[in-house]
Structures are given as structure tokens and as C-alpha cells.
């Protein structure tokens, strides 16, 4: 009974993505590897080992299900092609990437030489030397999704003399973000929290290379075809270049204003009387006329009718 309740709870936190995919045409073999929750001592041991605190959203995820893996395929003629893949590591697989050394030279370069100050949006890039980087997803070899701990400089630390033993240094504090590391070792920001990344993963249905939509590399042509087939709305949002904002604001910027006057323009025009003006002028209009479709055509029709009625009166004089 507990396993059944746990499965139903996982279906809720995954917004029933498995049932949604099974209803899509052509999709088959939707497999969700349900993993049991992690033990709380295992989470505490990880924090003590790395001297870090896990973000609350990621910690709650591990205490709910220790990892996540969902795959799905597409049936094409007589073949089955694997397409979708959503994967998040377990607490034991959340390993620290090898740190770089800062004593490299032109003869023995290191990852420290690749460190940059800020990205094009002014955000501080992760450092291979000072940041603590943990791998969340291997992305099938085309990159890595990483949980990055960036050290926050305490207030007044720049004034501390490291050679003076009497100067007190505050303990290090860190902020966490989710970044994507491509195969050329360049960093690309995805979102500020694990919860936001989890939602993005579900909304992209685990389509191939979906993380590249957050980079200047862009989606490859084959991935664009899968997006057009199974997630065209998400592709349109990604191509607008504001994917992170769209996931947090729940489409506030995507709503287009609705002008009710334009929507019901045809109905309001039909209510405008075009013929009573001719009746007030004392002219008799023939009952057999062509139907009037708009106010403009009514005005034009009124002119022709008054002209045809007024001509016999001139001749009679």
C-alpha cells in the first residue's frame, strides 16, 4: 500500500508526464524508473563530507525520490527510435568535479586559464578553482548540468590582512545556481534554483539537447524537428530568448491583449441602422433589396436607392 501511495505521489510531482506522453501519437515505451527516497543520514553525510548545505528544494527532492530517470521512444515504421530522456542523479552520484589548479603556465595550462569574470548578461561565471561544482546530469555526453556553489565575499573581507593573525575572517558563504557546461568548457546559465530546472525539464519533455536552447549554440536541426512535432509551443518560447522568465512568471509576458471591440466588430456593425435615414427623408425604398453586410455597404446602398427614386420625380416636373 505504501508503494502505491508513493507511486501516486510521484505522478503528482511529475505533473502526470508519463500519462501525457503515452497519449501522444507515435510515442511508445515510456519508462519511469521509480526510485525510493534517500535516507536522511545519507543526506547529512553528504553535507558533512563537503562542508556545504544542500538547497532546500534539492534536499526535499532526494528525500522524496533518490534520483529520477524517465525515457520514451517513437515508433517509426518497423523501428523504435529512443528520443526522450529525463535524468537526475542520486545523492551518492552527486559528485564534485575535479578542481583546477591556479599555478598553471604557458607550458602546463590548466582549467584555471579558462575562468572568466562575467557572462554577457553581467552574471558571475562559475570558477573551476574557487567554485564548488557538482554534476546533476551527464546529458548523454553533450554537456553537463551542474549545481554550482559560488562563494560570497563577506562584507569587509577585502580589508583583512592575511598576514596578520589578529584579523578575523568570517566563514565562507555560498549561493547556488544551475549552470550548463558544454563540451568546449564554456558556462551557460540555466536557472537560479533546482526547482526551476526540474520544471523546465518536465516542460521540455526530455527532448534531445533541450539544454542547448539556453546557450548561444542553439538546438541542432534534428532536435528542432522533434520540438516542432511534440513541443511547438515550448520551442516558440525558447526561441524568444527569455526561457527562464517564462518558466517563473507562468506566461505573464506571453499574454496578448484582447480587444473586445475588434472581436465583436461584426455584431456591432449589424446593429447600426442604415436604411431608416432614407425613410426619414420621405423616400420609399423597395422591399426587394440585396442583403446588407455592413454599415458601409448600407450607406452606399442608400445613396443608390435615393438616386434611383429621385430621378423619376425630376422627369415628372
From TrEMBL:
Residues 278-296, 307-317 have a biased composition (Polar residues). InterPro entries: TPGS2. Residues 265-317 are annotated as: Disordered. This is Tubulin polyglutamylase complex subunit 2-like isoform X1. It comes from Biomphalaria pfeifferi (Bloodfluke planorb).
Amino acid at each position: 500500500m505504501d508503494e502505491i501511495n508513493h507511486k501516486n505521489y510521484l505522478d503528482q510531482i511529475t505533473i502526470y508526464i508519463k500519462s501525457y506522453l503515452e497519449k501522444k501519437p507515435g510515442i511508445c515505451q515510456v519508462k519511469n524508473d521509480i526510485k525510493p527516497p534517500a535516507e536522511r543520514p545519507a543526506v547529512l553525510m553528504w553535507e558533512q563530507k563537503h562542508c556545504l548545505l544542500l538547497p532546500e528544494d534539492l534536499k526535499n527532492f532526494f528525500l522524496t525520490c533518490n534520483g529520477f530517470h524517465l525515457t520514451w521512444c517513437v515508433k517509426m515504421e518497423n523501428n523504435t527510435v529512443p528520443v526522450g530522456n529525463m535524468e537526475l542523479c542520486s545523492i551518492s552520484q552527486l559528485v564534485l568535479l575535479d578542481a583546477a589548479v591556479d599555478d598553471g603556465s604557458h607550458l602546463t595550462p590548466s582549467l584555471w586559464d579558462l575562468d572568466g569574470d562575467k557572462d554577457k548578461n553581467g552574471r558571475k561565471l562559475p570558477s573551476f578553482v574557487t567554485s564548488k561544482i557538482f554534476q546533476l546530469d551527464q546529458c548523454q555526453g553533450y554537456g553537463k548540468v551542474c549545481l554550482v556553489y559560488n562563494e560570497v565575499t563577506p562584507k569587509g573581507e577585502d580589508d583583512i590582512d592575511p598576514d596578520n593573525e589578529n584579523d578575523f575572517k568570517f566563514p565562507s558563504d555560498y549561493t547556488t545556481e544551475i549552470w550548463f557546461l558544454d563540451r568546449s568548457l564554456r558556462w551557460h546559465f540555466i536557472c537560479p534554483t533546482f526547482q526551476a530546472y526540474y520544471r523546465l525539464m518536465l516542460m521540455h519533455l526530455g527532448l534531445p539537447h533541450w539544454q542547448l536552447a539556453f546557450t548561444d549554440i542553439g538546438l541542432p536541426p534534428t532536435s528542432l524537428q522533434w520540438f516542432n512535432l511534440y513541443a511547438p509551443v515550448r520551442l516558440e518560447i525558447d526561441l524568444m530568448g527569455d526561457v527562464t522568465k517564462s518558466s517563473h512568471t507562468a506566461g505573464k509576458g506571453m499574454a496578448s491583449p484582447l480587444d473586445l471591440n475588434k472581436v465583436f466588430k461584426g455584431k456591432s456593425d449589424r446593429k447600426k441602422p442604415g436604411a431608416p435615414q432614407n425613410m426619414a427623408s420621405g423616400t420609399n425604398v423597395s422591399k426587394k433589396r440585396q442583403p446588407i453586410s455592413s454599415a458601409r455597404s448600407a450607406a452606399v446602398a442608400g445613396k443608390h436607392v435615393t438616386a434611383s427614386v429621385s430621378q423619376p420625380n425630376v422627369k415628372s416636373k
